[in-house]
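Thread: Newbie trying to understand structure tokens

Hi all, I'm a second-year student working on a class project, and my supervisor (Dr. K.) asked me to get a predicted structure for one chain before our next meeting. I've only ever worked with sequences, so writing a 3D structure as a token string is new to me. If someone could post the tokens and maybe explain what I'm looking at, I'd be very grateful. Here's the chain:
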Amino acid sequence: MEAERLAASDRTLVPNRFVVRLNPDDLAGFGEMQVSLATELADGALLFARVHHYTLVDRPRVDLLADPQVERSDIAVDARFADPIAGRGRDTATDDSPRGDSTGSDPTSTRVFVVPTPAPPQVRLIVNGPGHPARVVPVPGGTLRIGRAPDNDLVLGDGRASRHHGLIAGRLGALVYTDLGSTNGSRVNGEPVVEVVLRPGDRILVGDTTLDVRLGESRS
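---
Reply by user tm_fold:
Sure, no problem. This is what the structure looks like when written as tokens:
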């Protein structure tokens, strides 16, 4: 992804289509896991782009391809930019169409279909920060950027929080907290973390601010 990135004046564009070429024997070894593997790789590419504030023209897609020219236990990846599919929003859409070679002319190709991904749980955060009363913050759509900078979804008036401190994002039906390389780090339930799956009742510590994870949307 980063090897093919393009820098613009106000953003960095990265590829959104990837062909992962494996030796046919290696690919066959994944068996029925090929579909879920491609989906997880695409989800990982999306999360990587979001964490690094890269711009995607459309949600990443990964195709697996059997290639006899690739040595056993080796891997080759082709990355390219592809225009978004009509009717789909940038970076957040899901693809209900078949993946892979639409012509079917290559007998070694692997056609990959999208596995329906469950929606992440609806949660809210009870935010307690220095000098501010407790407040309830929903996590709409399972995504929330946290930090001191005004472009975050949750802006913290906490001097020990980094400008872009952490990210909560949905992944495969779960909510995942990722520390974005913050100066003072992040803790969940007292343990330092880089990335962790969140559960109701967890307590995230960002600087001197605590974020208590609660199930369900906030009520007015």
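A couple of things are worth pointing out once you decode it. The radius of gyration is 20 Å. DSSP finds two helices and 16 strands in the chain. Feel free to ask follow-ups in this thread.
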